[in-house]
Amino acid sequence: MGIGGSILLIVVGAILTFGLDDTDLGPFNLDTIGWIFQIAGLFGLVLTLYFWNTRRRTVVRQVPRRRRRWHDDPAVGGRGHRASPHLLSRT
Q1: Stated pTM of the model
Q2: For residue 29, how many C-alpha atoms fall within 13 Å in the half-sphere facing its CB?
Q3: How far is residue 54's CA from residue 19's CA, in Å, rounded to a whole number?
Q4: What is the pLDDT of residue 85?
Q5: How do residues 42-88 score in pLDDT, each as one tens digit?
Q6: Whole-angstrom Cα distance, residue 82 to residue 90?
Q7: How far apart are the first and last CA of the chain?
């Protein structure tokens, strides 16, 4: 039903209960219908808020970026992979 529908039921029920002087519409009592609408709206509001608070929250974590090493840098002559040991020892 949602929050909007629940509030609408509560408002319409309050208008039917407290806002009308002639409370009989044939075999129906508008005060009783108004109270039923208000209770249904309140129940829907509580249920909606309950489900909103209990739904699973997803946490998005940023993936750590790989640190670049000097032998991975194409500007230094690296090829994007781990350099062999004889290339690392420059004397």
Answers
A1: 0.57
A2: 4
A3: 37
A4: 57
A5: 999 999 999 888 877 777 777 777 665 555 555 655 555 555 555 55
A6: 16
A7: 75
Q: How far apart are CA 87 and CA 91, in angstroms?
A: 10
User: Chain centroid to CA 11: how far?
Assistant: 25
What are the backbone dihedrals phi and psi of residue 30, each rounded to the nearest 5 degrees, phi first? -70, -25
Could you count the other beta carbons within 10 Å of the beta carbon of residue 86?
7
From CA 61, how far away is CA 66, in angstroms rounded?
15
Answer for the pair 40, 22: CB distance below 8 angstroms, yes or no. no
Specify the residue for token string 């409370």: 23
Give the Å distances, CA to CA, from 77 to 3, 7, 12, 42, 85: 62, 68, 75, 70, 15
At residue 3, the 3 state secondary structure works out as: helix
Say which residue the tokens 């909606």 belong to: 48
Tokens of 64: 């750590």
